[in-house]
Amino acid sequence: MKYLSILASALLATASAHGQSGESCRTAPDPTLQKPEVYAGYDCVNLLDSTAVTVQPTGSGSFTVCKIVKVMNTRGAVANRILKYDYDPLTAHAEFHRVTIYKANGDVVNLDITRQQDYAAPARAIYWGARQIMMEIGRLDPGDIIDYQIDKKGFTYALLADGASDDESRFIPPMRGQFYDIVPFWATEPTVRKVYKVNIPMEKEMQFQFYQGECSSSMRYEDGRKAYTFVSTDIMPAKREPNMVDLFDAAPKLMMSSTPRWQDKSLWFNKVNEDYGSFNAIPEAQKKVDELIRGKKTEMEKIAVLTHWVADNIRYSGISMGKGEGYTLHNLTMNYTDRCGVCKDIAGTLVAFLRMAGFEAYPAMTMAGSRVESIPADHFNHCVAVVKLSSGTYMPLDPTWVPFCRELWSSAEQQQNYLPGVPEGSDLCLTPVSAPENHYVRIKADNRLDAKGTLTGQFTITAEGQSDSNIRRIFTTGWQSQWQSALESQLLAVSPKARLISVDYGKDPKNYQAAPIKMTFRYEIPGYALPGEGEMLFKPMVMNNLYNQVKSYLRIDTDLKERQYGFKDACSRLVELDETIQLPAGYKLAIDGKEDRAQSPAADFEGSLRQEGGKVLLHQRLALKKRVYEAGDWDGFRNAVNAHKSFREYIVIKR
Residue 430 in 3-state DSSP? Predict the structure, then answer.
């Protein structure tokens, strides 16, 4: 009874403090008392997770975030002893409004809210002045309940601002009058009740959709305004699968926006950057562009040389420079002088370079990692560029993701949505699948095995696209003194006894633009074959941990028999492995040979192992056709990869 009174006090205090928020601050009874077996083993349980937003005609929002958390064990006590909340002072302000602890022994502790701390948030690579607020709770015990409220004003993304000030205008989004939000309705711990409520002026229209799940929703008229409320109850932690797609593509979420169409956002993105002068030419950059395109005859040669120069020479490091952060790209004077910036500044530099070379080019927004829906809410985290070709079509370019890469658009971003900021306006676009042949890795080995089990021979590896970038990275980003040891490590992964005799690098491996990488290794591996009574056992070298770094599919667990969600590989890819092994005199395969084949929309495989004369011949061809797969693709992908893996078993030869 004592515990029930504690919970009732917590809920009463919440309702009293947030009566103005109505539905969003109500909660259900504590089910951890009614059904303790359901919550056994969890560190904490969210009794309430509520957000109420009041939107002004300008699009600025006032957020009331309420959470009631029950501590279940000592791990939960430690995890909740400090409360933190992130915000961007350029576009928002946040503070703890109240924090109350309802102790399991009946005590009620109201923390002194003036003790909250506001400090620079930890940062890496992007230094835009993000901040955190923090409240130290102190010692907690199992059964304690934390009840707190955070008040926030502003909008979600850093777009345009002159820097933190007392000016209320900094809370107004640059696309004035527009409001959007992206609300995950999944949880990392059990949540009894989750509520999101947004209150907008009567004259505003709002479109929304709830994806990948269900919730109760309503729209009511309250005090001359429209109130949209979304409620979900009894949420258990989202189930995850290895290599699954992002939770935004698999778990329940709410998307809402007052912007009618993506074309409206495209037009705004174009105008805000043109008005700012992000791409205005400067003489010193024009000189560099003229130098780079001199002698280049085709449009693709010019586009390629400009993209690669920007990718390789503008370092990724974002410093807050006041006005211009967010969706407004820094101007060329700043970017070319500093030679650093984040994705938007690198993309902006390329747009300016292309324009100085006579091309029509614009910036574009994209989301690296998850899908962008048809609701025009700004679910973007990355900036790229588009250039209009002579055919009239726009080609996407991403200088941020292609340093020292032979591609102009990284195929690690295939099947990805993007929105060009073009003067005619654009709908949401999708990058196509890149054919596996664009990312081939081929290893061809010619080996000889002697009667003592020593393997000698050579293999040649060639690669293109993303496979080329993976293999070439040691040359483009590492010290030359590291090359030899890095290449030796490839052989040592095959056998600790391996000895590298020589490597033929072919053309300069640092010059990635010249040609696909091609290297030939010569080696000796004593004791490679395991001796037996009248027989020897060994694995095909090309299947024995050789350059596994590029075979990203091997890091996907194909023992899983089924999947509920889609899954990802690093890239589409073609793997071709061929090996010839000259056997010692008198030896032959212990089996007649092996052959396998699999085909599906997701992946194809063909492989064979056979003997011809005194030689064993291995052939493998694995084509993985996508980067992002549906759950229904799993059987085809799994069957092809498992068939491929089956050829790495020991080969037995007998006299």
Answer: strand
> Token pair of 308, please?
């690669």
Helix intervals (H) in 214-331: 262-276, 283-293, 299-313
Q: How far apart are CA 655 and CA 633, in angstroms?
A: 44
| Burial per residue of 513-523, b for 16 or more beta-carbon CB atoms within 10 angstroms, e otherwise | eeebbbbebeb
Q: What is the three-state SS of 4-65?
A: HHHHHHHHHHHHHHCHHHHHHHCCCCCHHHHCHHHHCCCCEEEEEEEEEEEECCCCCEEEEE
Nearest by Cα to 186 from 214, 217, 208: 214
pLDDT in tens, 292-344: 999 999 999 999 999 999 999 999 988 765 554 556 788 999 999 999 889 99
- Judged by DSSP in three states, 583 sits in coil
As a whole number of angstroms, the distance between CA 604 and CA 597 comes to: 8
Q: What are phi and psi of 44, to 5 degrees?
A: -155, 165
pTM for the predicted model, two decimal places: 0.90
8 Å CB contact between 106 and 6? yes
Q: Which residues pair with 68 in a beta bridge?
A: 48, 147
Q: For residues 433, 436, 441 and 445, what is the CA-based torsion angle, rounded to 10 degrees? A: 170
Structure tokens at 162: 């002159």
The counts of H helices and E strands in the chain are 12, 37
Token readout for 322 is: 């006041």
Q: Hey, what are 111's tokens?
A: 């923390």
Q: Which of 161, 163, 176, 178 is nearest to 328 (CA)?
A: 161
Instruction: Work out the mean pLDDT of the chain and round it to a whole number.
Output: 91
The average pLDDT across 407-417 equals 95
Residues in the chain: 655
pLDDT digits (tens, 9 = 90+) for 505-541: 888 899 999 999 999 999 999 999 998 888 999 999 9
pLDDT digits (tens, 9 = 90+) for 574-590: 999 999 999 999 999 99
Which residue has 């042949």 as its token pair? 437
Range 49-65 burial, b when 16+ CB lie within 10 A, else e: bbbbbbbbebbbbebbb
